[in-house]
Amino acid sequence: MGRYVIRRLLQAVLTLFFVLFLLHYLLSLAIQVNGNPARTFFGDKPVTAEQLAAVEAKFGTDDPCLDTIGDPCLGMFGKRMGDWLTLDFGTTFHGYSVTEQIAQAVPPTLILFAISTAVWVLIGITAGVLAAMKRGKFFDYLVRTGTTFTVAVPTFLLLVITQQLVGVSLGNWARSTFGRDSVLGIVFQPSYDHDHPFLSLLVPGILLGAFGIAGITRLSRTSMLENLRADFVRTAKAKGLRPRRVTVVHTLRNSLIPVITLIGFAMADALGGTVITEGIYSIPGMGGLAFSATRDNDLTMVIAIVAILSVSFMLVTLIIDLLYAVLDPRIRYE
């Protein structure tokens, strides 16, 4: 197990280094082709060469390598990596610290992902397992119909409808009945509440979980049905093991490998979904920060957010690889 973990960690570090360099090179190439973004700092105002040079120096875009198309700018890459190791992500075009802005935006997004992951694991996998155990019965048809509905309805439409029905209509009733500061009054709010971040993110987090719950539920059901007919399950039953142990230890454990893989991809898709969710519910998270930085052409903020998201996805992939070895010991020996 130790060698497997070390091998996966080394692969993750090398992949992360390659991703960060590719990100740096694409950004440098964009500047070399489209021109220095420091000019956008002044908008439509006339600017002198001295003013432009001062802004380029301030935001670190004054390296001569940016004047040569195709130059990888290795010196800039080394300096950027050194700054990032000290958590110095630079300054935005508006003069704010990128590190401080990201530090304020990370907690709401992490809470959103924690809630959506809980939805995938507790509701998605549980519903898939129960549907497989009750194949052909009412609950099985209910799960299959519900997942089809979830896939058919666009998520942004589900977000808007839920915000109106739950956040406005049901929320007004809860606030008038139980009080504005009651739990239900806070949970059923149409927007983010800075004083109660977790409760006000409960509904948006559940809706963000709807991005991938249909696939996770269907794959859990299919994987369970396949393993329920496997020889090792029949052997476990023939040995007289209790049904709960056969289901949880032998069947569910072997059914989770493809499901965990899908959860990893669902997290990657949910990164895009946070932009929509945070925009509709006015959540000051990473998605909204990425959208505003892209709209303002703030490359310092954009590259910092993309780098952090890349690191996050690499960590999720590493955790999934380690879970493979836990669920199936044969993987660590291959």
Automatic annotation (TrEMBL):
One cellular-component annotation, GO: plasma membrane
Subcellular location(s) of the protein: Cell membrane
Gene3D superfamilies attached to this UniProt entry: MetI-like
Domain of life: Bacteria
Record keywords: Cell membrane, Membrane, Transmembrane, Transmembrane helix, Transport
Start and end residues of each ABC transmembrane type-1 domain: 106-324
Transmembrane segments: 12-31, 110-133, 145-166, 198-219, 259-281, 301-327
Membrane topology: Multi-pass membrane protein
Major subcellular location class: membrane
One GO-annotated biological process of the protein: transmembrane transport
Family matches, as SUPFAM superfamilies: MetI-like (SSF161098)
InterPro entries to which the protein is assigned, alphabetical: MetI-like, MetI-like_sf
UniProt keyword annotation of Transmembrane helix present: yes
Family listed: Belongs to the binding-protein-dependent transport system permease family.
Protein name: Peptide/nickel transport system permease protein
Originating organism: Stackebrandtia endophytica
Taxon lineage: Bacteria, Bacillati, Actinomycetota, Actinomycetes, Glycomycetales
